[in-house]
Amino acid sequence: MKLAPHLHRLGNDIVACYFIDTPEGITLIDAGLPGHWRDLQDELRSLGKSADDIRGLVLTHGDSDHIGFAERLRSEHGVPVFVHAADADRTRTGEKPKVAFGPMRLGPTLGFFGYSIRKNGLRPRYVSEVTEISDGDVLDLPGSPVIVGMPGHSPGSVAVHVPIAEALFVGDALTTRHVLTGRGGPQPAPFTDDPSQALDSLDRIAGLPASWVLPGHGAPWRTSPAKVGEAVRNA
């Protein structure tokens, strides 16, 4: 689905990933679930393009519902996968600390896991080779994405700022739809390693110029990053 010039979303409000389309090629932000591979192919075909036009995949963090088709894209098309150094091992192995689920409601929780099953999310394929990135890096990829460290959800969580699309991709630094309760609106994301640190990290995006804040779960949010921290904390 095209959201704006250069800006496309794959998936839905349960699990989403994104890409930036430019004349120089495509940059993907996250890779959703393995079954989103078909969604990616359909969207690329609608643009008259293919996976060979993708120049890089940037992960906001290394959890299984964000690495989806990353290894397939890397191994079959040679697309490099970028992830913060602190999440590199999580991306390669899936190893992560156990965290409390927090509040849950039966319907939304079943919906989340049911969607994950339909998209082959219970059989994650980890990424054999990654390119490690750091806070402040400007990647040599279409759209010149800027990496902003957002530790908390995971040690290597990042936001990805792409000025050409006025877009800020935040992964699970926040959510606009809680996958376990179904509650809408900006709020902290579940399955977070360090909730207090995640809230503190929201201050790191406050000064960025963007009109889209794009989470991995929930609806795209048309807002200024300056308003994000207060809205999530009030939730």
UniProtKB/TrEMBL annotation:
Gene Ontology molecular-function annotations:
hydrolase activity
Q: Which Gene3D superfamilies match?
A: Ribonuclease Z/Hydroxyacylglutathione hydrolase-like (3.60.15.10)
> Keywords for this entry?
Hydrolase
Q: Which residues form the signal peptide?
A: none
A Pfam family:
Lactamase_B
Metallo-beta-lactamase domain segment(s): 14-217
Q: Does the keyword Amino-acid biosynthesis apply?
A: no
**Which InterPro entries did the record assign?**
Metallo-B-lactamas, NDM-1-like, RibonucZ/Hydroxyglut_hydro
Key word DNA repair present in the record? Answer: no
SUPFAM superfamilies registered for this protein in UniProt: Metallo-hydrolase/oxidoreductase
Write down the superkingdom of origin. Bacteria
- Name this polypeptide is given: MBL fold metallo-hydrolase
Upper lineage is:
Bacteria, Bacillati, Actinomycetota, Actinomycetes, Streptosporangiales
